[in-house]
Every structure is written in structure tokens, then in C-alpha cells.
């Protein structure tokens, strides 16, 4: 049974400012989980060119995934959720999926929910769509 639906758009250029600004390290630690930071090499400076553009688009899609989840949960960003506990990961086949940890994982289990995720990016925008379903 469907519990909630959420979607979010993230402007890639706006996120780039957060990832490269004076407080980038703190922003990255607060928003992205370990698996995301490793997969996107967020703890390393962004190189120029196509590689950086792809990393930025993926980071923006991951950010949108977090916001979409919060909308589907119907709570917004408040207890028990922490953005770094809501990770958008890629499966071996490349499909996006959620990985939850900490209090967010406990909340999902307590509510008996499973999450599905779809991501896209094009034209300077990244999109995420989340559904939460009862198990």
C-alpha cells in the first residue's frame, strides 16, 4: 500500500556553490553520507570538465532524493531525520536506491516501509521521485 509520494528539483548551479564555497566541507558532512561521499568523491576538489559536471549533476540528484524522501514521509526535515542518514546510492546495475542509517533507518523499520527512488538530470536541473510503500 502506498504511504507517500515525494518529488524534488535541484538546480545544479545552486548546489555547486554549496559544494565549492567557504563552508563546503561542513555542508558535505551534514548532507551526504559516507557511501555518497565516496561514490561521488565529494571529499576531493572538483576537477574541471565533463567529470566535474557529472559529479555535480549526481550530487544534485542525490540532494533532490533526500528532499523527495522527506516529502514522501510527510514530515519535512525534523526529528528523527538527518540528511546524511538518507543516502541515494547506485546498485550494481546502475539503478538508484535509498540506503538509510541511524534514526532514519529505525523510523523506516518502525513504520514498516520500503522506499523506491527514480533520478534524472538534464538542462541544469536534477529531479528525484520517491515513493514509500508499506511492506
From TrEMBL:
It comes from the Bacteria. Its EC number is 2.7.8.7. One of its GO terms (molecular function) is magnesium ion binding. Its main location: cytoplasm. GO terms for biological process: fatty acid biosynthetic process. It is found in: Cytoplasm. Mg(2+) binds at residues 8, 67. It holds the Pfam family ACPS. SUPFAM superfamilies: 4'-phosphopantetheinyl transferase. Residues 4-112 form the 4'-phosphopantetheinyl transferase domain. Its cofactor is Mg(2+). InterPro entries: 4-PPantetheinyl_Trfase_dom, 4-PPantetheinyl_Trfase_dom_sf, ACPS, Ppantetheine-prot_Trfase_dom. It catalyses: apo-[ACP] + CoA = holo-[ACP] + adenosine 3',5'-bisphosphate + H(+). Belongs to the P-Pant transferase superfamily. AcpS family. NCBIfam families: pantethn_trn. This is Holo-[acyl-carrier-protein] synthase. It comes from Faecalibacterium langellae. The lineage of its organism: Bacteria, Bacillati, Bacillota, Clostridia, Eubacteriales.
Amino acid at each position: 500500500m502506498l504511504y507517500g509520494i515525494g518529488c524534488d528539483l535541484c538546480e545544479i548551479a545552486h548546489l555547486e556553490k554549496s559544494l565549492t564555497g567557504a563552508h563546503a566541507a561542513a555542508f558535505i558532512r551534514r548532507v551526504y553520507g559516507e557511501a555518497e561521499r565516496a561514490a561521488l568523491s565529494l571529499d576531493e576538489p572538483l576537477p574541471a570538465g565533463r567529470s566535474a559536471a557529472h559529479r555535480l549533476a549526481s550530487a544534485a540528484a542525490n540532494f533532490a532524493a533526500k528532499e523527495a524522501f522527506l516529502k514522501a514521509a510527510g514530515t519535512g526535515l525534523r526529528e528523527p531525520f538527518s540528511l546524511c542518514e538518507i543516502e541515494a546510492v547506485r546498485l550494481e546495475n546502475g539503478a538508484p536506491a535509498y540506503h538509510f542509517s541511524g534514526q532514519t533507518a529505525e523510523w523506516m523499520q518502525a513504520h514498516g516501509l520500503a522506499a523506491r527512488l527514480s533520478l534524472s538530470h538534464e538542462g541544469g536541473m536534477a529531479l528525484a521521485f520517491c515513493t514509500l510503500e508499506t511492506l
